[in-house]
Amino acid sequence: MRSPVGQAVVLCVVAVVALATTAGAAVPPYVDSVIHPTEAEFQQSIAVYQQAVAASNQDADAYYWLGVAYWQASSLNRNGTISYGADYLQRAIAALERAVTLNPKKIGAWLILAEAYYTAGDLDKSFDARDRLNVLSTDLSQYTGAMPPPAPRGGPTVVVPPAPQTLVPANPAFRASDFVYAGDPDTKKLYPLSCQLPPMRHLVIFLDKWDAVSRGYTLAQQCP
């Protein structure tokens, strides 16, 4: 386990890195609903992120989406859907670690890292990543529309009811639907948890949609 001194050093390093600016143009999100049957097709799908990190090693989003891509492919390899990607788990971890080094508040990267470390058998790092997630989940600066407007000072009291809002991460690179899915065991349909779910007699929750696909579920192309 890491010593208190070691933890202090790591936190100091993270604090310094957090002050760095992210360079490079914005990269598009990785389309993780597509299964690439060959490694050549997969490599083509991540070329934009590889080019971005080659152009700048300060692009947290490029490292994040590269990590997402490698994590998805490694999951597909483990459940037997694709034949390549046996070594992609470590590539995913390396890319995501770089992403959180550049942006320590990147919740999506920490979420995958917690699962990836556990899959790799590194329980200490997995628990550390989960602890980081717990801290970030209580940081309201990560969200927009999380707090009602402050009450005015002085004069008559005016109550302004807040509009109905959902906590939405300020960073659009984090999407809960990337990670949590609801399955209907009767119809074998799979929906992102962010959808308005149809009526179900039973509900199964999956943290990895490819695990659900390997069990016979079909990913819905759009929310009901």
What order do the helices and strands come in, and which of them pair?
Layout: H1 4-18, H2 39-45, H3 47-55, H4 60-78, H5 88-102, H6 107-120, H7 123-137, E1 143-144, E2 168-169, E3 181-184, E4 189-192, E5 204-206, H8 209-214, E6 218-219
Parallel strand pairs: 4-6
Antiparallel strand pairs: 1-2, 3-4, 3-5
Explain this structure to me?
- The protein is an alpha+beta fold.
- The protein folds into 2 domains: 4-141, Tetratricopeptide repeat domain (Serine Threonine Protein Phosphatase 5, Tetratricopeptide repeat), CATH 1.25.40; 176-219, no CATH class.
- It contains 8 helices and 6 strands, in the order H-H-H-H-H-H-H-E-E-E-E-E-H-E.
- The strands form 2 sheets. A 4-stranded mixed beta sheet has the order 5-3-4-6. It has a two-stranded antiparallel ribbon with strand order 1-2.
- A hairpin with a 4-residue loop joins strand 3 and strand 4.
- Helix 3 (47-55) packs antiparallel against helix 4 (60-78).
- The chain is globular.
- The protein starts with a helix and ends in a 5-residue tail after the last strand.
- Mean pLDDT is 76; it is low at 1-24, 144-149 and 163-169.
